[in-house]
Outer membrane protein assembly factor
Amino acid sequence: MRRLLALFLFGALALAAPIRQVVVEGGDPVLQALARAALPFGEGDEPGDLEAARKAILETGYFRDARLFLEGDVLKVVLTPYPPIAEVRVEAKAFPEENLLRFLEENYALGKEATYNPLRAQEAAQGLSRAYRQNGFPFAPKVEVEAKEAGGRMVLTFRVAEAPEVKEVRLQGATLLPEEDLLKLLAPLKGPFDFAKYQEALRAIAGRYEEAGYRFSGPDPEASALEDGLLTVRVREVRVVGVEGEGLDLAGFPLKAGDFLHYPRLLEGVQALSKALSRVVNFTLVPEGEGVVVRLEAGPEGGGIARVELTGNTAFPPETLLALLRLKPGEVYTPALAQEDARRIALFYQEKGLQVADVRYGFQDGVFRLEVVELKIGGYRLEWQGDHRTREEVILRELPRPGSLFSVAELRKAIARLLATGLLAEPPRVSLAPGGSPDQALVVLGLKEARTGLFQPAIGWSSLEGWSGSLSFKEANLFGLAHQVSLDLSFVQNEARDNLSFSASYAIPWLYLDYLDLKEVRTSLSFGVFSTPIGNNKLLQGPTDTGWEYTERRTGGSLSLSRPFSKDLDNLRLTLGLAARRSAFALEVYDPKAPCDATGADPTRPCDPGSQTYKDPAYVKTLLPAPGWTLRLDTGATYLDVDDPRFRTQGYEASLATGLGLSLPDTGGRSFFVPLVATGKTYLGLDPEKRQALAFRLSAGTLLGFPPESERFFLSGGG
């Protein structure tokens, strides 16, 4: 019995022996260290519950499976980690994807080549939702995570539900301004939630409060919320809790406790105190509860302003900017008021679409000095997404020149011109980077090149026309210079058996040469050649229909030059064109239903074939128009004043086209003719978003002189 008890005790001691070594297999060294740290026991400890230890390792989220077992006094851990991440995507529009990806990588270690962790992915989704709320969203959007394994690697996709339906909009806390006026600013938010429109509406409300003088009042994004389709925008209107100023007579101060904080009245009070005391008066706003305490403090003696000096302003005359200032000759210089004047100048520039790098101010010897540091374009940096052929000069020539004032309006016009070239697949992303000096900014454009080539073969058959085919090639960015080339070849059945049609053209939208003003004024050059049949023309003898039809083949070429009148008058565009065309004519198959006179009363239309009748092809050929050449010199002028050349919703357009034509038939002789066409257009927008418009056009034209039959034209079509 004693021997059996001793044996049992020895076995128990053996089972409880401490772990001499922990061996971890699978995963990289970092993951192995993570698994070791997760173990509830280690080397030198007595082994505990292995299943609990396994769960502790799996709870880190980095491992798909883990096996733990003892081999004597050695604890073996075999890990099966999740695959590495091949790519992380965020499907969202409110914020740039690169910013969201950086947020996920820096805060949750979710990036390319990192080990996939489903727990971290869910935490990241929740964190991303909170980040949206903290960055201005009136709700925490739902974020779904999709993890797909492909080729032993994971692709993570975060989908942010940014656009729940807004069914109703309410405003809370607005008493200083008419609520109905503010609600009009929020009305466009109904429908799918749009963060950009939401921010624009909040800025508009804040601007209304600013215009009314309540600078620190306005929308409170943190207190605003979107719940169950109801968007509630909370407005915070700041009151004055108290006015303090040791040793100052505040009896006439325009702000009292309980008043709403009206910033212009605050400045008026400070200015009046400063002038009365001939001293600088400073103020601070101390938050207290939902309001502020205005603390006034008399400073050193202030100098009287004898003169105001303004420098650095080139965009506006001095008198325009001086009228904005509160500090004028006769006032006491106060830094707080000087700062406000500098701010007023900066805001004025901003309202006009310009920017200032700084407005420096100072006071010396009775002179209040303001130096406006206007922001200029220091240059451009083009960041292409993917491969591109377009040369930089093609992009840069559309943009405002380096050294010019940075103007939002001019930059928008330049981007519209870029998009009109068809070279870009999407509107460029625009950002600013520091330039070479404080008054310069580097404009950074993110560009993606569009596909500009087209090769289109086609073949067809119909029971009426038989076989037909066409071959078309177009390229709008030849040599990366935005040159445009077009080749078209087609085969269409024709009753005159004149089946082939060909045309080729080459256009240079901007003749960008270092000669005269060609680099300053967009001058375009185009030329083309063609040979095209035009069938089914009725053959008439005077007013009589012969029953025959003919085909006219037009073969020729053209050259056209177009440019604005000048750099400063680019709305007025002039065009000069030269064209030469030869016309040849061929009879088509005879129409058996041709009119005839069976009574014989009209000898010109007998029903029996014979010489010199409409049944005689040899005779009918003599009725065809005479082949010959037509030369034309065309001129035109177009004046365009519209809101957007790509989609016009307001404005007008007027054009006048004329020229001189010379007809030279092969039978001899010549004749001159003058075409004259005048056109007017106007546009009427149908909605504030400018997505719909009505266009009205009025055209009038005539032909003077003796034009050939083929020069007849009709006023119709669109554009």
Summary: The chain has six domains: 17-81, 85-160, 165-236, 375-447, 454-625, 628-719. Residues 1-14 have pLDDT under 50 and may be disordered.
